[in-house]
Fold Rhodanese-related sulfurtransferase.
Amino acid sequence: MPGVPDVSPRATFQALAEDPDAVLVDVRTDAEWNFVGVPDLSEFGKQVVLIPWQVYPTMQVNGAFAEHLRRAGASATSKLYFICRSGARSLAAGQAAQAAGFPHAFNVADGFEGPVDAEGHRGSVAGWKADGLPWRQR
C-alpha cells in the first residue's frame, strides 16, 4: 500500500475545483460540524461529504465508515480528500479507506483548524481556516 499522502489545504481546494470527481470527506464529529463550521465548496457546485471517523460522545471508530463512503457515491476511482480538525483522524480514515478498496485517498495536512497558537487557540496557524479558504457555520 502506497500510504496516504498529505496534501495542503490550498492544493486540496485546487484539486476540488479542477476535478469534478474529487470529493472532500470531513471526518470530524457532528458537534464539530455544528459548532466549528465546515468547508464551503458551493462555488464548485459541490458539498462536503460528512462522515464521522469516530462517533461522539464515545469516540469509538465508526465501524460502518467504508459503507458510508460507498453510500455517498465513492468508488475505487474516486479521489477522496479526508479532513478533520488537525490531520490525525483524517489520516486514519484515509488509511481505512485504502484498506477498504479506495486507493486514491489523501490527507488534508493540518486539517480544518490546524495546531494551537501561542494562546492555545486553533484556526490561525495552519489549516483550512488559517489559509483563508471558504467555510461556513452549519
